[in-house]
Design a protein that fits this description.
four-stranded mixed sheet; alpha+beta; 140 residues; 6 strands
């Protein structure tokens, strides 16, 4: 690939879902995942307290479907995700059990990938493909 002139990307400066249902999104990210946000007067929730992105990728939909469903087609009865994000957690089994207990539909639950990552995947309230993971190779 050709490297563009005068552009030198250093890191991912920000990432987040485009929220259609603020109440459902707040519940999922704050109450379920336990992320701490600062709330601006206009309702914009943000944080600078999470460690940075360890892996950024352009993930083809066919590969995401394969990862979640074992087939290269995304099911027609589910929203097609526009982005993905993964949160590495301390205890994948406890996190997965908590998501189940709160009624979230898991697409994949505590599956070990060939590279050693254990992953649980679900669709967030805004259709974002969310991974709850334990990734040994990214731990210090």
């Amino acid at each position: 690939m050709k490297t563009p002139k005068n552009i030198d990307v250093l890191f991912v400066a920000g990432f987040g879902p485009i929220v259609h249902d603020p109440t459902a999104s707040r519940k999922f990210y704050v109450k379920v995942l336990g992320l701490a946000f600062v709330e601006d007067t206009n309702g914009y929730l943000h944080t600078g307290e999470l460690d940075g992105v360890k892996h950024f990728a352009l993930w083809p939909l066919a590969q995401a479907a394969e990862s979640c469903f074992g087939a290269d087609q995304w099911p027609g009865n589910l929203p097609v995700p526009q982005a993905w994000i993964e949160f590495d957690v301390e205890n994948i089994e406890k996190a997965t059990a908590e998501l189940k207990s709160q009624g979230y539909q898991l697409l994949v639950a505590t599956r070990k990938e060939p590279w050693g990552q254990v992953v649980t995947r679900l669709l967030g309230p805004e259709g974002l493909l969310v991974g709850i993971t334990h990734t040994p190779s990214m731990r210090e």
